[in-house]
Amino acid sequence: MKIANWGLYPVREAALHRPRQEQLNRLLDEHNLIARGMGRSYGDASLAPHILSTLPWDRLLAFDEARGILQCEAGVRFDTLIDVFLPRGWFLPVTPGTKFITVGGALAADIHGKNHHVAGSFADHVVSVDLLLPDGEIAHCNHEENADLFHATAGGMGLTGFILCVRFRLQRVPSAFIARQTLRARNLGELTALCEAHCDATYSVAWLDCLQRGKQLGRGALFLGEHAANLPKRLAPAPYRLPKKRPKTVPFFLPSLVLNRYSVKLFNSAYYAAKPSKPRQDLVDLDTFFYPLDSIHHWNRIYGRRGFVQYQCVLPASTGKAALHSLLDRIAATGSGSFLAVLKLFGPGREWLSFPMAGYTLALDFPATARVFRLLDELDRDVVAAGGRLYLAKDARMQPDTLRAGYPDLTRFLELKQRIDPHNRLASDLSRRLEMTPCPAC
Amino acid sequence: MSRLLTLGARSDIARATTQRFAAAGFDCCLAGRDIDNLRKDAADLAIRHNIEANAQAWDVLAADPLANLPLKDAVLPDVLLCAVGLLPDQTQAQNDAELAQRTLATNFTALVPVLEAYAAAMAERGSGHLIVLSSVAGDRGRASNYIYGSAKAGLSTYLAGLRHRLRGHKVGVITVKPGFVATAMTADLDLPKRLTANPERVARDIHRAWTKGRTLVYTPWFWRPIMTIIRGLPEWLFLKTNL
After folding, report:
1. Rounded to the nearest 10 degrees, how much is the dihedral formed by the CA atoms of B113, B115, B119, B125?
2. Burial of A169 (0-12, 13-18, 19+ CB in 10 A)
3. Which of A181, A240, B8, B162 could tie B84 with a disulfide, CB 3.0–4.6 Å?
4. What pairs with residue B175 in β-bridges?
5. In whole angstroms, what is the distance from residue A126 CA to residue A356 CA?
6. Residue A349 has what pLDDT?
7. B118 annotated active-site
8. Do A61 and B40 touch (CB under 8 A)?
9. Cα separations (Å) of B110 from A119, B115, B175, B192, B194?
10. What CA–CA distance (Å, rounded) separates A118 from A114?
11. What is the pLDDT of residues A99-156, one digit of tens each?
12. Can you give the pLDDT at residue A409?
């Protein structure tokens, strides 16, 4: 069957297997494999000729009510966790922009959210993980036991073993609502100043207009959020009830010319103008604050059949602002950007292959065209020169040397991989492209 | 609190249906052979739905098939869901007497003492439901699966008789006849996509039948008219088909 991840680029022919956990060893004897959850990475991360779907591994195994520690199988989804636990007053400690991901995927990509600067990434809340290694052994990994394997698995893109089950902490929340503040910024300088001034907010993320140049380069809005404890009278009786929404859907691929320089410019201008010129407060439910795009099913089809690529980089704090400026200028000059442009200030990161580091992260969508790929190669050079790196869960096209330059722990990771998987039984199109595992043809 | 006992609880249909009853507030007892996985299923049900759930090692072919099962008054379930079944390769079953016998026992004869025990206990209490998975395969014997089909045919007739006996005792017997369902049991078969249901759909139909007090459920619904036609074909015409 044809399979692609969220960017719908690349598409590949693959066999999708759905064995029980006990049958996995036998399957591994027959084929090299990569695990796949909901396929919400953007590029070729969970793609290979033979793919193992973890979705059938969807059981909750144990919940410690007192400490909020949940143990569950790797295929359990974040939206299931919200359905089950939000009514009891618990929420995910860290969540990305979609709830349609698995716990295994969250760890393998070491996802981050709007609260990274105060709460770190998903792996920072994981207590232990059980991994099935290619030799058939089950490794119990935590901060004391198999610690290297534990940390390498966070952001390890499924290359260190099959994640069978994960034990992690949920966070207590006072309600299903977020007190949100929206602040507008007329240019990049104002925007980054706002980010830094509000660095003690729990949730913080900025949108920016990536097609502006000159004095308005980087104009946008900062969204801050706090879990709301004091609800208005009409909501107070059921503080954990999420309002029901009727999801919309994009029923077919839009023709590729719908999203172009002019329509995006128009959207960006309208979106910016709609933001309040003075800071504004409001109350929104968790679903609206964290997952605005989830209510539009198949929104990735608006980019058309050729698909799109998401470019997410992080620039270290020291060089960040200057590098951001030149990146945005380069992007605006080509007019290739999209309306989805996100900027966020990260806190300190982890080791091994985890993506976040202290500094600014910028995420943009681009149509998957040759012209864009040339632009992205140029952006890579700027990012590397600034000491930054790209997010593997979003990447579809970077070169191996960009990976090497951005992740100083890559050598250590590859040595560990060689030790536990000398025959490279676990490999993906991503790992082959980035020369982390050998290509059969090479 | 209402109680559900699921026999053959690792079946995909059983798991989906048990989840539905648990969501409706039933405490669950899961009986089957794979006790490790059953315990994990029970843990999931308990956490997900805030009910009590436990697992029981049980094999319908055991010398005493009633051992380990909750039968005493205090633990007698309100609903018994029986999803025990074995679908053999037809050709293999034709040539292997042991497999043929085991198919008939697993799908029909070995279930009889268990269902009789629960029928009697529920009738004495004056309440309860027996929901048993049969199959459209029992509606007419056909070359491609008659050993399995005949066992299910026997089961369906047995259940109809049980239902008839229990009228007036306030115990319901529901015969569930699924058509093609995408489960572990049919994983190796090449089923026609349009006609194949998923276990969640079957679970929904079963739960709805129980709430509405139905007695015979074809799931999905279109199997009822299909099997009416197939049953209605005169033998000389049926012999010309390749079903």
Report:
1. 100
2. middle
3. B8
4. B132, B216
5. 16
6. 96
7. no
8. yes
9. 57, 9, 17, 31, 34
10. 9
11. 999 999 999 999 999 999 999 999 999 999 999 999 999 999 999 999 999 999 999 9
12. 97
The nearest CA of chain B is from the CA of A16 a distance in Å of 13
Strand pairing partners for A140? A130
Instruction: Give yes or no for a contact between A174 and A138, defined as CB atoms under 8 angstroms apart.
Output: no
Per the CB < 8 A criterion, the answer to whether A116 and A94 are in contact is yes
Distance in Å, alpha carbon of B5 to nearest chain A alpha carbon: 20
Residue A146 CB partners (closer than 8 Å, separation 6+) = A139, A140
> Is the model's pLDDT at A2 over the cut of 60?
yes
Over residues A5-43, the pLDDT tens digits come to 999 999 999 999 998 888 888 898 899 999 999 999 999
Which backbone phi and psi does B181 adopt, to 5 degrees? -130, 140
Indicate if the alpha-carbon torsion angle B43, B44, B47, B53 is positive or negative.
negative
Q: Which two tokens stand for residue A349?
A: 């990161």
Residue A60 in contact with partner chain B when CB distance is under 8 A: yes
DSSP assignment string, A198-231 = TTTSSEEEEEE-TT--GGGTT-EEEEEEEE--S-
Q: Residue A262: is its pLDDT beyond 60?
A: yes
Give the position of tokens 């249901």: B197
The string of DSSP letters for A287-336 reads: HHHH-GGGGEETGGGGG-TT-EEEEEEEEEHHHHHHHHHHHHHHHHHHT-
CA distances from B37 to A138, A275, B10 (A): 17, 53, 8
A177: its two tokens: 């609502």
**The pair of three-digit structure tokens given for residue B158, joined into one six-digit string:** 């047995």
Which tokens belong to A152? 């390498």
CB B68 within 8 Å of CB B31: yes
Q: Which strand (E) or helix (H) includes residue B15?
A: helix B12-23
The answer, for A63 touching chain B at a CB cutoff of 8 Å, is yes
**Hey, what are A22's tokens?**
């006990």
| CA atoms of A82 and A90, how far apart (whole Å) | 8
Strand stretches in B103-165, DSSP E: 128-133
> Which residue type is seen at A387?
G
Q: State the sign of the Cα–Cα–Cα–Cα dihedral A87, A93, A98, A101.
A: negative
> Which of A20, A73, A84 is the closest to B48 by Cβ?
A84
- Tell me whether B40 touches chain A (CB under 8 Å): yes
Q: Of A160, A135, A243, which is closest to residue A427 (Cα–Cα)?
A: A160
CA distance A46 to A428: 6
